[in-house]
Design goal:
single chain, mainly beta, 4-stranded antiparallel β-sheet, 53 residues, Rubrerythrin, domain 2, 55% strand
């Protein structure tokens, strides 16, 4: 049986539109909020996505 780990689902919200992505991160190793540059389909360009609560 697998152990319950420190990985949790986090929601990434676009800084320029209402687009969202879901990803997983290890909260034990990465305690600060993550920022990733990903593709925003509504704007059709790459923008910064920040971790939302």
């Amino acid at each position: 049986m697998a152990k319950k780990g420190a990985r949790e689902n986090v929601k990434l919200k676009s800084t320029e539109s209402e687009e969202c992505y879901w990803t997983r991160k290890n909260k034990r190793n990465t305690t600060e909020r993550i920022e990733l540059k990903k593709y925003d389909a509504t704007l059709r360009k790459h923008v910064i996505f920040k971790e939302a609560k």
